[in-house]
Amino acid sequence: MKTITLKLVLLFLAALVLFSSCAVQHVKPWERDQLAQKKMQLIHDPTENGLDEHIYFSKEASSGGKSVGGGGCGCN
Amino acid sequence: MLIIRSVVFIIFCSLVSAFVVAAPAPSFTLPTAHDSVAFDSLRGKVVLVDFWASWCDPCRKSFPWLEDMYLKYSKQGLTIVAINLDAKRDNADKFLAKFPSDFTIAFDPKATVAQLYDVKAMPSSFLIDRTGNIILTHTGFQEEQADELESHVQEALKK
């Protein structure tokens, strides 16, 4: 009986550590200095990316999926 | 019964808070380049509190506008407090060397005042009337909105 209680307590503690939401730390607006740097951008050249997207859109008749723009509504 | 009552109370509170526009501005005291600025000492003036950082592009655009506003309206009672939120002071100083300004620059590297004001974006500005209430909250800076902001400042100065 005692070992079961101990196991339950250990399980609870493990769950507490594992499922604590420390991975969901939101970046505050004033903490974005590193993220705002040019070298941190996912798209390194907006013009080139625009051209790529256009070619993709006109050749394959599909857009979106890569980023937020064009949610797949078929309206652009 | 108690649960229902408390739920109703919470809903009531949230509704009331949604309609209250003029909220008292949180008080603060922050260091400036050579001295410090206390919000309470600015009572009776229209205060424009602006949160900025050196890495923020729109802030770069807003600085000349803030300077313009200051030169135009400081005699009528407008005070501008631009609160810098850079973690490293060096970055702020480099920015300030490029954009010389006459209004008050305060430093809040730990963002304690930004948390008090619940800053949602950079830059964020808060227009505070002569009685110490926030009458306007504005996020971001676009040149097209500058005239509208200026008219709010003018209105606040008339009261």
Describe the structure.
The complex is a heterodimer of chains A (76) and B (159). Chain A has helices at residues 2-18, 46-60. Chain A is mainly alpha-helical. Chain A is elongated, with a radius of gyration of 23 Å. With 159 residues, chain B is α/β, with parallel strands linked by helices. Chain B is built from five helices and eight strands, in the order H-E-E-E-E-H-E-H-E-H-E-E-H. In chain B, the strands form two sheets. Chain B has a six-stranded mixed beta sheet with strand order 1-8-7-4-5-6, covered by helices on one side. A two-stranded antiparallel sheet of chain B has the order 2-3. In chain B, a hairpin with a 4-residue loop joins strand 2 and strand 3 (36-38). Classes of the chains: A mainly alpha (76), B alpha/beta (159). Chains A and B meet through loops of A and loops of B.
Question: Keyphrases for this structure?
Answer:
heterodimer; A: 76 residues; mainly alpha; 42% helix; 0% strand; B: 159 residues; alpha/beta; six-stranded mixed β-sheet; two-stranded antiparallel ribbon; 5 helices; 8 strands; 24% strand; globular
